[in-house]
Amino acid sequence: MKPLDGTNFKCWSQKLLIYFEHLEVDYVPFTDPPEITPQTTDASTVIVTTSQTVRDSSKRDDELKVKYERDNKTVRDHLLYHMTNTLFDLFVNHKSARTIWNTLESRYGGDDAGRKKYVIGKWL
Q: CB burial class (10 A; 0-12, 13-18, 19+) of residue 86?
């Protein structure tokens, strides 16, 4: 796959999304990290829970968080690996794959303006 250089975002992004789908991590560029919500009760509502239910919920939250962190690293690594060195240097310090994806999409993905400028520049 040709690395992203700013002129080939549309094709580059579609190829990576297909690959992410194959890895079953295609949700990461479009999803916020899972939020862990603490179990709370207010005085007007009585919620009867067993300690087992609370532990199960906490365990599930932890598993979701660990899965998201692992998948985020996978997507981030592939995004960075498939960029030119110039773009890599700009994004290497970003830890969120979603942030990288959204930034690239806003800069290069709108209407493929970068590609049009590149083609016109070469033509002139």
A: exposed
Q: CA 33 to CA 96: how far, in whole Å?
A: 9
pLDDT per position as a tens digit, 6-19: 999 999 999 999 99
Answer for the pair 105, 4: CB distance below 8 angstroms, yes or no.
no
Taking a C-beta distance cutoff of 8 angstroms, is the pair 4, 74 a contact?
no
Tokens of 36: 């862990």
**Integer Cα distance of 52 and 55 in angstroms:** 5
pLDDT tens-digit series, residues 42-93:
544 445 556 667 677 788 889 999 999 999 999 999 999 999 999 999 999 9
